[in-house]
## 1
Amino acid sequence: MTWRQGSKGAMTSWFAVLTVRPAGKQPLAAAQESGGGRRRRDGILPTRALLVEWAQGRDAPTDYWMSNLPATTPVADLVGWAKMRRRIEHDYRELKHGLGLDHFEGRTWPDRHHHVTLVTAAQAFLTLRRLDQKAEAPARASTRPSPPRPAEVLEGSRAGPTR
C-alpha cells in the first residue's frame, strides 16, 4: 500500500490488520470499569486492531500500532493515521521555533498554561489559514531596490515635531 509520495518516490509497504485482545493491567482495568466493576465483568478483554507494517525486502515486520477504532475502519485510514508522524513533527517544530513554545521563562503553572494556550491558538489560526483556499497569499517581498525618497521628505523628518 502506498501512503504518500516522498522525495525519492512513492512510500510503500505491506500492511496487515489483526484482531487481538491485549493483556496487561491497563486493558484489564478498562474492562473492569466498562463491565461495572471487578465482580460484574464477564472476564473477556476487549478486542483491538493491531496494524502491522512489513516493509518490502525485510525478513520481519518493522512497525506495529494498536488501535481502539471500530473494526469497520478501512485499512487505508489506519495506515494514514499511523504514518501521520511527519505532520506531527512538522507542527511541533513550527510550535517550538516559529511560534515560541520554547520561549517561556516564567515560573508559575498559570503563566505556563497561558503561554501554551496562546501558542496553541496561534497554531490553530495558522493551520486554518493554510487550509483555507480563499485566504489571500501573503505579499511577496520585492527583489527590486526601493526608489530613493524625495529630498523634501527626508528634510521634513529631520526638522522635528511641528506645531
## 2
Amino acid sequence: MAEFTKKPLNGEKSLGARLKSAREFKQIDPALAAKRLGIRLEYLLSLEDDHFERLPAGLYGRNYAKKYARWLGFPNSEINKWLAEQEKNISPEINPFFQKIVAKKEFANFPKLVRTTILLLILLACLAYLGFYLKMIVSAPDLNVWEPAGNLKTTSTVWEINGQSEAEAEIKINGEEVLSNKNGDFSLLINLKKGLNNITISAKKKYSSEAVIERQILVE
C-alpha cells in the first residue's frame, strides 16, 4: 500500500503531530491512552505519526482519529477541520478516510443491523420449531380402523373391531378403553344387538385433540 507523505496542513502542524503534542503535554503514556480509549496501541501511534494507511479503512479509521482528539480535549469544529484538510492533501485512491461504499449512517448501523437480523432469524427459527412441536403435541393421533372397513350388514351378534393408532395414544371403543401393543395395534371383540349398532372408535394422546371414526353394523 502506498505510504502517506507527512506534511503540515496549511503551514501548521499535521493532525498526528497535534495529537501527539497534546498527549505529551498532558503527560499521558500512549499505552494508557490506548487502554482508556479502547483503541489498539499500534493504531494510536499510527495516528500520531500520520501513518493513516495503517488504520482500518473507511469510517473506522476516521472515528479513531475523532475519538482520540476529543479525548485529548480538542473541540469538534477543530477536529472536523483537520480531517477535512487532511483529506484534501491525500488522493482519494489511497485515502483510508475516503471510502464511501456505504453511506455513513448505514455503515455505522451495519453491525447492529447484522446482529438484529441474525437474532430475528434465530427467533423465527425457534418460533417455527415451537409451532411445529406444539402442533405435534395437540394434533389428533393417526387412527385407522381395519375391521369393519365400513358400514355393514351381518347376521352375527359378535364382531371383532381392530385397527391401529399411535403407540402412545389412548384407544377407546364405545367409551371402553382398549389396550394396544408397541406398534399401536388394537382389537376388541364386541357383542351386537339386533338392529342398528353404532360403533365409535377414538384415539387421543395426553394433550392432543381426539381422532374419531364411526362405524354402523346392522344385525338382521
## 3
Amino acid sequence: MLLSTRLLCFKVEARGVKSNCFGGIWGGQLQRWENGSYDKDGSLKDLGVPDNPAILPRMAKLTDNMLEFAEEVKSIEILDKSGKPILTKDLERRFFEAPWIHKHNGIYYLSYSTGDTHLLAYATSDNPYGPFTYQGVLNEPVQGWTNHHSTIKVGNEWFLFYHDIEISGKTHLRNVKFTTFKHNADGTIDPMKTYFGTDWRF
C-alpha cells in the first residue's frame, strides 16, 4: 500500500515495513539541505553545478505509528545504465520531485517528476533503497507545467493516477486523471501518452 502527497509517499510492504520516500528541488528545497542543515540563503533551484550528480530523493523506515523516522534518512541513488550518477544538467532524466515506489515481480520501481522538462520518469532496482537504474519515461508531458502521480494495483490491473489542467486551463489548478498500464516481460514499462493536444501551457 502507498499513500502520497505532492513531495512524498508512504510505502507499506506486505511484511509490514513502513517507509517514507520524499523530496524535491526548487520549491521542495532539498538543495538547501544538502550540507545537513537548512541554508536559508541557498539556491532557489539546484546546487548550480551542471556536471555534478543531481540531488537525490530520500527515504527512511518509519516507526509503527508512522509519525517518526525509525532510522537515519538515506539518499536514493539513481544511475544511468552504465552505472554513473544522473547529472544535474540531465534535465530529462534527473530527479526533480514527487518520488513514488511500487513493486512488481520482485522489482522495485522508483518513479518521479522531472519538473521543468514535464516528464514522469522511472528507474528500477532489486532493493527499495537502491541504487536504481534509469529505464525511461513513464508518462509523457500532460497539459500543464508539471505532473505528479501514483501507481497502484487493483485486482490484476495496474493504474497510473496523475494530474493535468484540462478543466481549469491554469497550471496551479489541477484535476486528477488515471489510466491503466502494463509491465513488460523484461520488467520495463512502455511510455504512456495521455495528452494528445497541442495546448501544453508550460
## 4
Amino acid sequence: MKLFGPCLLILGAILNILALFMLLPVGFSLAYESANQVAFVLSATLTSVIGIIFLVIGKKYPMEQMQPKQVFLVTSFAWVGVSTFSALPVVLMQNPLNIASAFFEAVSGITTTGSSVMVGLENYPKDILLWRSLLNWIGGVGIIGMAIAVLPFCVWVACAYLKQSLRNGQIKHYLVLKV
C-alpha cells in the first residue's frame, strides 16, 4: 500500500476536481429546463465520494518523492478513472446512452479525439453538449498538465541512465556534445 498511497491521494484530488466540473452543466440544465440536473448532481456526488475516500486513504501514507512506477500508475489510473466517472452523466441523463457508448463518448472527450457515437447532436440538451465540450477542454488541459508533470521526470530518468552508462564505460565514442 506504500506504493499506492500517494497515487490514491493524487487520484482523489483529480476526481474531486472532476466532480466540481460536473456541477457546471447543472446551471445550463436549469436555464434550458432540461431534466438532467439529477444526472449531473448524482454523478458529481458519486465521483466526489469516491475521490474523498481515495484522499482519506492516501493521506495515511507519506508523500515522498514519487517513483517512476507511481508516476505511470497515476497517469494510467487518472485516464481510466476520469473517463469512467465522466461517462456517468451520459448514462444517467434523460435519454441515456448504453454504458459502452457513454464510455466511448467520455474517452473521446478526455483524449480530445472528437469522435462521437451520438447521432444528431443538435437534438441533445444544451447541458449534455456543454458536458461534451468540457470533457474536450479537460482532456486538452490534462494532456498539457501531464506533459508538464511527466516529461521533466522522463528527462531526469534518461539523464540518470546516461550518467550510469557513462560511469560503467558503456558509452565511449558514441556521445558527441554540440553547443
